[in-house]
Amino acid sequence: MKETISKTIERICSKVPEDRVLRNEPMSRHTSFRIGGPAAAFVTVNNEEELAYVLAIVTDTGAEHMVIGNGSNLLVSDEGYPGIMIKLGGEFESIIRDEEDPCRVRVGAAMLMSRTSAFLTENGLSGFEFASGIPGSIGGAVFMNAGAYGGEIKDVVRTVRVMDPDGTNLRTVSNEDMQFSYRHSMAEDEGILILSAEMELTEDAPEEIAARVAELQFRRNSKQPVNYPSAGSTFKRPVGGYAAALIEQSGLKGYTVGGAQVSEKHSGFVINIGGASCEDVLAVMRHVRETVYSDSGIMLEPEVRLINCSL
Questions:
Q1: Is 114 marked active-site?
Q2: Does the predicted TM-score (pTM) go above 0.90?
């Protein structure tokens, strides 16, 4: 495998500049949890041509790889990742307003949700307020149909530009064909890559939008442990209940292993209170799942994506 990875990296460097191909790169630098050992290589691609080239190479060599967004929903193993991490940058960090229909915008997959919200607010486009405080990128949000405060990405997305995992078959997929559901889309099932999304908003006064964004930001900051590294909500919302409520009812607020803790501010979050390892977080998650299941009969499913590790 090491030989395969080494040869794959050499081939990638024939297209992608060396300064965007980082070897043995700690994933703790690229996740909001600030946790994770080194990836064999961390490659940033700046346009569709580079992405297609890199995907064609890793498909040809069989090298282990994955495409990530802003790393805000990842828990990476302490041992790291034995393959190639591919991150979108450059042209994927763009947002363009449609000249014919000013209520529509095309947003690149690498654009942060916060930057997207700021652009829409300044341009008097409403409908994205719910997402203003969600960490991460548009691509990741579309992939998992991210949501908050009663809104979801599917509510504003019209079409999504995608690419097959081998770097071929560029196409545009409709909202309906994306098969959005709770924290899920068909991109997850088929492994397709999100390149950009066309969103449709409604016009409103920038100051009115800004006021709503500020209100939601205040609510988020007052209830969530935003001052600690985390991956957001650790568990998915179970049918007929809320993960945070079940965890709190089981008396697990503040439960700590090493540097990982069930937040005392919001029990739906496992946070890094300082120097947490992946194993610390997994130990907390396992204990939470077992205790909640014992108390309620409900098995919580992780919302955070586990990379090279498991519960």
A1: no
A2: yes
Catalytic-role residue among 34, 183, 237, 289: 183
Which residue of the set 188, 279, 303, 305 is catalytic? 303
Domains in the chain, ordered, with CATH?
Answer: 2-91 (3.30.43.10), 93-223 (3.30.465.10), 243-307 (3.90.78.10)
Respond yes or no: is residue 203 known to be catalytic: no
Residue-level length of the chain = 311
Task: Determine whether 94 is an active site residue.
Answer: no
Pairing of strands 74-76, 21-26: unpaired
**pLDDT tens, N- to C-terminus, the chain (311 residues):** 666 899 999 999 999 999 999 999 999 999 999 999 999 999 999 999 999 999 999 999 999 999 998 999 999 999 999 999 999 999 999 999 999 999 999 999 999 999 999 999 999 999 999 999 888 899 999 999 999 999 999 999 999 999 999 999 999 999 999 999 988 999 999 999 999 999 999 999 999 999 999 999 999 999 999 999 999 999 999 988 899 999 999 999 999 999 999 999 999 999 999 999 999 999 999 999 999 999 999 999 999 999 999 99
